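Case study B.
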Amino acid sequence: MTTLRRLTPLAWLGPALVLIGVVVLWPVVVMAQSSFQHIGGEGFVAGYNGADNYRRLFDEPDFAAVLLRTLLWVVVVVVVTIVLALGLAQLFHQRFPGRRVARWALIVPWAASVMMTALIFRWALDPNSGVINLFLHQIGVVDKLGSNQAHWLGDPHRALPWMMAVAVFVSLPFTTYAILSGLQGIPDDVYEAASLDGAHGLRAYRDITLPLLRPAIVVATLINVINVFNSFPIIWEMTRGGPGYETSTSTIFMVDLKQGNVGEAAAMSVINFALVIVVVVVYLSTTRWKEQVDR
Amino acid sequence: MRTSRARTAAVAAGAYLVALVFLLPYVEMIITAGRAKNELLDANYLPKHFTVSNFTSLWSAGGLGGNIWVSLQVAGGATLLALIVAIPAGYYTARYRFRGRTAFLLVVLATQMFQPAAMLVGLQREFTNFGLPSPTISLIIVNAGFNLAFAVWILNAFFSSIPVELEEAAQVDGLSRIGALVRITLPLAAPGIVTALIFTFITAWNEFLVALTLSLGSAPADRPLTVAIDGYVGQYSTDWGHLFAGGLVATIPVIILFALIERRVVTGLTAGAVK
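Model:
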């Protein structure tokens, strides 16, 4: 009877554990194993080859540049997203007629597939007929339509900022909503007390709002770091990581390696995964998930 | 009083402008989907003539109609599987304290931060070796797995908020424990179930990278919509009108669904953080 009792949780949680095991945990094992194997083009394993895959990966001429670009990509996109979202949340927190409808517009890029959004921007940046180019031409930024000057995505130094802008665009809705829900959790009497003490406007924002928003900002930042690091569709649809690997992040680089050398791609994945783990550990240690489940 | 009115007007104007910026790319998608083929490359904001031919051709041979059906199967199947697995787990962890409960919830929360991109090579090698009859089934399993965390977490929160006394009273009235769960608790948790359902559906519907990886060997008509749309790009001349017509059909229902659950999604995604 007691054994049966002890097994009851397993009946309720078992299916979830199996699904997590098959889809999330086992692939990590397979991936780590593959990173030490020589794998042929058709996926046949030709035995273990020690650290060969890692050695080959580190010897890739683009490896260091790709890692640096990944860091730049994550830092720029996340910092710009958080700063803009703080402003947008403040704006949408105010009372004004039509607020519901305006907030509704904000969720569109969140609900739509990132891949579709990236394709729209690629089309809008088309050198000959893209509407962004048309607009920039009309306001005088681009001198001559159809000239190479308007070929934003062909030049890595111009393509990367545009793709970062798209990444910020699709990250803003969630981030703004997360900070908005943080703002709604701040009671009004905090501000009343502060205004009695003479704190208004920007000072009240810096001394009261920001510190109270800290948990929301931390969580939004960590979730964004994970999302932006793993982001694939934006770069894939807009430049395919090219020319060469000049606009690739480590996720794009891994997918591209996979077409030629699965073992080396597995080595890149293991490194990517280790970086993700670091962020997850930070996330779990900063959030108060335990208090929530112990209610 | 007047300054506060002017302030409200300024705030509203700013907010409407922001809203417009967020909508504009999708407006451009609608306009392009309505462009006639011979006006596709014209450098103007609006074409001279609008056409619906890009939409009607979706269901002709070589169109995206079949891919929409594949995506419906993947997203629908993943949603069903995720709910069947998440409801008992969410319910049990909300109602009972047992050894391993905290560990289980920690694993669930940790997997919420994992994304398929970071373990793509493992997924590809594992699911190719499974030898499942079609990529659709693999994609159903993978999408259910990566959305399970959100579903368990939000259902746990909903079940926790339903007083256990309601179930006890129903059992006194002669219902079994399972009967009380099905007849009393599940209907009360409907908002949570609907949220998990819609969120899983949308995420699976929009998913691209795993779909691209696992359906590479399939015939073009058997690939999910995102993969099929990707296949349109980069050909000698991309048929943007047809592409965006398909994209529009894929996007509009998802936006409406998302609007229904918008508030609860933030709570679910930042699980453990809000207090």
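Chain B is about 75% helix and 0% strand. The remaining cases will be described in the next quarterly update.
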